[in-house]
Amino acid sequence: MARSEWCCNGLSHAFAQRADRGIYVFASRLGPSSPVSFWLAMRSVTQADLRRRENLGPSSTVPVTLATRVPIRFCPWCGKRLDRFYGPNGNQLIDTSLDAEFYLPESPAPGTD
Ligand SMILES: [Zn+2]
After folding, report:
1. pLDDT for the residue 100
2. CA of 6 to the centre of ligand 1 (A)
3. Which phi and psi angles does 27 have, rounded to 5°?
4. For 84-112, what is the mean pLDDT?
């Protein structure tokens, strides 16, 4: 997306960080006729390292959250309403590898593609 198409640098930067550790944003479409939804997410390890989670250390009975996400309506940095600002351009924030990571409803189950 061109720089002028982003609501702000904060969201652009957060989307660019989507494969790294930390906080990021992405969009998803929950069904073929569903509107684009926007998500704020966090991952403790890189997306690539999630596949190696069995190598993260000794097994423990303490629950650990490696990754989580929540739906958002407004940009956390500039406050713009995301569905109105991005409209059809919201498709450009969809990364199907993230749908698979979070098992979003219309995503194929891992290993079935
Ligand atoms: Zn923004």
Report:
1. 82
2. 7
3. -120, 160
4. 77
User: Side chain identity at 23, as an amino acid letter?
Assistant: I
Look at residues 63, 82, 85 and name the one whose alpha carbon lies nearest to residue 73. 82
Ligand 1 centroid to Cα of residue 40, in Å, is 12
Question: How many other CB atoms are there within 10 angstroms of residue 80's CB atom?
Answer: 16
Give the pLDDT of residue 32: 79
Decide: helix, strand or coil at residue 4: helix
Q: For residue 73, how far is the Cα from the chain centroid?
A: 14
**Average pLDDT of span 40-59:** 81
pTM, two decimal places = 0.80
- For the chain, give every domain's residue range: 3-102
CA 99 to centroid of ligand 1, rounded, Å: 22
**18 near 25, Cβ under 8 Å?**
yes
Gap between the Cα atoms of 68 and 39, Å rounded: 10
